[in-house]
Each structure stands twice: as C-alpha cells, then as structure tokens.
Amino acid sequence: MNRASVAAGVPPPGFPGSRSRCVCTCWKTLLFTSRSSVAASVPPAVEGGVSPPGIPGSRSVSGSVANRGLLRIIAYAAACLLIAPPHSARAGVIHEIYSPYHHILVLDEGDIRTLSFDGTRETRMSLKNPLQGHFGYTELFHYARLWNTNLARVAMLGLGGGSTQRSFLHHYPEVRIDSVEIDPAVVKIATNFFQVPIHERHRVIVEDGRNFLRRSREKYDLIVLDAYVKHRYGSHMPQHLATREFFEIARDRLTPNGVLAYNVITILQLGNADATRALARTMLQVFTQVYQFRASDSLNAVLIATREPRRLTPPELRQRATGLASFGRPLPTGLAERLPSINTRLPPNVSQARILTDDYAPVEGLERP
After folding, report:
1. Taking the model in full, what pTM does it have?
2. Is the pLDDT of residue 37 over 90?
3. Domains of the chain, earliest start first
4. pLDDT over 90 (residue 6)
5. Among 106, 138, 144, 365, which residue has the least CB neighbours within 10 Å?
6. For 169-313, where are the E strands, in sequence order?
7. Which sign does the torsion angle of CA 80, 84, 85, 88 carry?
8. What is the mean predicted confidence (pLDDT) over 305-326?
C-alpha cells in the first residue's frame, strides 16, 4: 500500500481543482475512443490501487463496436469519479495531508470511512464495526493458516488503514505482528482515524520493508505483502519487493513452516498484462509451491508461497480447514465455506513468464495492459 506521490494531472473542463490522476486518465482515454477498440470491461476498485484503463490497439472501429467501447469508457470514467471525486465535491473529507510519499485523504461517506492515497482508495472501514466494510481481498490472507496452523509471529509490509492488522489481532489473540510502513504520516492516520492499535502485540516500524527484513533477525510464521507505489499510469508493485533476491531475503526470515502471502493487482481481463504470471514464476525460483486466491469483488489476487514439497489439492485444503474448526481454531466466518468455489491454480503459461531480478524487474510495464 506504500505509494510514491505523483504530480497532479490537469483536470478536464467542468472539474476545476481536481488533482485525481484517475479522473485525468479516464478523460484521456475518452479522447481516444473514436480511433481505438475497447475490449476492457469496467474494473472495480481495489485496495492497493485501481487498475488503469487500457487503450488497446489503434485500428479504427465503426458503428456499434465504437459505441460499445465508448459506453465502457464512459462507465469507467464515471467509476473513477466515484472512486476519486474532484476537490469541489469532497464534502466527506475529514482529514487531508501531503506527506513525502502521498497526498492523503480520509473521507467519511455514511457509515464507511475511506483512506485515499493520491486519488486511489486504499482502505475502507465501517464506523459502526471496524471489522467490517473492508475490501474483500484482505480476508484472503487468512488462508495462509491452511499451511501454517500455529501462527505466532507475523510481519506485514504495508500498513495503510490496517484492515489486515485489525482482523488478525481480533481473530488470533496469540499472534504478535510487526507492521512495516515507510510513511510516518500513514502510521499516524491509521492510529488516529482507523482504530489501529499499537501495543505489545502490534509493533509498527517506520522503514522500508525490504531493509527491515534484511536487517531483522526475527523468524516469522507468515510474511504479508500489501505494498504498492503510484506512477502516472496507475499502481504497480515496488520493484525491490518483487524480485528473486527479495524473496530470498523473505524466505530466510521465515520459520521452517513459514508462508508468504502477496497481494497483486491482476488485470488479465484487460489485456496482455502478465504481472501475476511474472510474480508467480519469480516466487517459484525460491519457494516450491505458489497458490493463487482471486478476490470475488475486485481485480486483486493473493499469491501464497510455501516450501511444502507437494502441491495440495482443493479437497485437501478443505480438509485442513475442517481440521482447524474441529480443534476450535476455525478460519474467520465464511472463508471455509468459500473454499469449494476457489480455484487456486496459477494462470496459464507461468513457466514462460519473466523472472524478475534486481537487475531486471519492469513491474510498471507488467501491470499496464
């Protein structure tokens, strides 16, 4: 969820004062619809970034095809305006700050509080119940317990509004969490506006995530990565947190049964982007198994990497979930019931994807269609 700040775009006519990159991108896309075919369906928002719209092809289109493309783009632009409203319509803003990394907004809309970085929704939380209202993909991190049932020490790279931290602290009283966040302003907002506690079970370290793991001598049962940066085309994985060398550092900080869980924004439906495949293949250079859990309400997927020699089948995963429940340590409500409908297979042609290294990791291009 960590993002570098970006220069504000020039707002389109009728939207004075807007600094939303998402809005500007949508209007730039609209300008091309008369000479571009549009194959993308409208993507939902994702915590950790909104996948940018593609402008596939340059061939002219006619009639109904052009109209359908224009309608899709208009719908996407409307979605962007809902995601990142212009400043003139920010009646729900309760806090705003510019940090060295982000333009940060905290907005209240009815019962939902939203954290926004640079015009992108990062975190949602219900004001009535802080354990509800979150983006659905954050629940997928709990599936790591199917491979390590005795979580005691967890490292989370990226804090944002702390949806995953709140959930783990609530469901697992025995767990101690080290959260690593590069932006001190985010830490203050998480504690002041999103009920993220800091105490003996939850330590927050202001540092780059890779540097923290490299210097640490702790061993973790689970390492969670939910960190993204922002550039003019949208969101992408931080290069230094997506390479083979990084995963070697992370592996060395895991216990023998330790698991790594990584949030990735996948835009496979929008073009030939191969971020998920490249990340999965890179992880497989260090870990023996990688499983994919796709979110049902966004373009997010959580990749879970383990060092088990044999890949577990879907029935075996369900059996492990049943075993946790029989010992009085079930997965959070609804997660076990979803397992039969989840396909954990990786995308096709993973073996043909690029291996990301410190010397070669074009992650910005991977996540653009």
Report:
1. 0.75
2. no
3. 21-86 (no CATH), 88-126 (no CATH), 136-366 (3.40.50.150)
4. no
5. 365
6. 176-181, 202-206, 220-225, 229-231, 234-236, 254-265, 289-294, 300-306
7. negative
8. 96
